[in-house]
Amino acid sequence: MIRKAVLPVAGFGTRCLPASKAIPKEMITIVDKPVIQYVVQEAVAAGIKEIVLVTHSSKSAIENHFDKHFELEMQLEAKGKTELLEELRNIIPDDVSIISIRQPEALGLGHAVLCARPIIGDNEPFAVLLPDVLVDGEGLAQNDLAGMIKAYDETNSAQIMVENVPQDVAYKYGIVALEGDTPAAGQSAKITGMVEKPKSGEEPSTLAVIGRYLLPGQIFPILAETTPGAGNEIQLTDAIDTLRSKQDVSAYRMQGDTYDCGHQLGYLEATLSFARRHPKYGEGFRELLSRYNSEA
């Protein structure tokens, strides 16, 4: 059972500027919680017990968010604001630990994952969750990360989450080639190749890589030997392609919905989706939507 997850949060969030100039992009809120909290809670719901933040000196707000704030809690308790107090105390369960390690240089996603090697080790599988991608498991018996973990346990092969996208936008994504037919949602199929942003009409499928990976510890020595690729950065996809020559790597087709919160429209779509069903603000938000829709 996979119990550890790596969240690379060291990036500057240039796609979110100017909002991310002084605030980590991961701390921008969706309704009433920062994006990073949704991602951590997704991991916890899938059974993850140890979360490694690969971070940067400018990202202390993320670490502070998951730390205990004694003075604030005492103030809320003194004022009888018990509901808010419980929300703060339950951001993460007591049996889940948050660990931080620095990425000294911005050398790519592969390098960020490699920075977690001293904590994860080379002999244990782990998850990688990109923190600007929300994967919504609303209405599912278990979220997609839990489904991936189950697939990993059953097959002992690395898993990469994929989503079916329209063919006319496939050129924007990393696209996988598969052995056999496209799997049903919630199922996996062996990957035979990966193409980063293929030319239009040359994509091997319409299954795009989403920001969730389950990898064996053996990926670390591969990452350590991976030379810079696209953008002169150490690419995780290059290391996974090398891993594929040594053992099976599978594509897990997600069941839920995904939102790219590193892009303004993706962030707005996530806000709409989560706000409409929010237990406290959902009814009022739906009324706002109706009002503005009638005025349009």
Secondary structure layout plus pairing:
Blueprint: E1 4-8, E2 29-30, E3 33-34, H1 35-45, E4 50-55, H2 60-66, H3 70-78, H4 82-89, E5 97-102, H5 109-114, H6 117-120, E6 126-129, E7 133-136, H7 144-155, E8 158-164, E9 174-178, E10 188-196, E11 207-215, H8 219-225, H9 236-244, E12 249-253, E13 257-260, H10 264-276, H11 282-295
Parallel strand pairs: 1-4, 1-6, 4-5, 8-12
Antiparallel strand pairs: 2-3, 6-11, 7-13, 8-11, 9-10, 10-12
The CATH homologous superfamily is named: Spore Coat Polysaccharide Biosynthesis Protein SpsA, Chain A
Shape: globular
What is the percentage of strand-forming residues? 15-25%
Number of strands: 13
Number of domains: 1
**Residue share in helix:** 25-40%
Order of helices and strands: EEEHEHHHEHHEEHEEEEHHEEHH
- Low-confidence segments, given as residue ranges, are none
Mean pLDDT across residues? 91
Distance between the termini: 51 Å
Going by helix content, strand content and strand pairing, the class is: alpha/beta
- Please give the order of strands in the largest beta sheet: 5-4-1-6-11-8-12-10-9
Largest sheet: 9 strands, mixed
Compute the gyration radius: what is it?
20 Å
CATH topology: Spore Coat Polysaccharide Biosynthesis Protein SpsA, Chain A
- Annotation field: number of helices: 11
CATH class: Alpha Beta
- Give the name of the CATH architecture: Alpha-Beta Complex
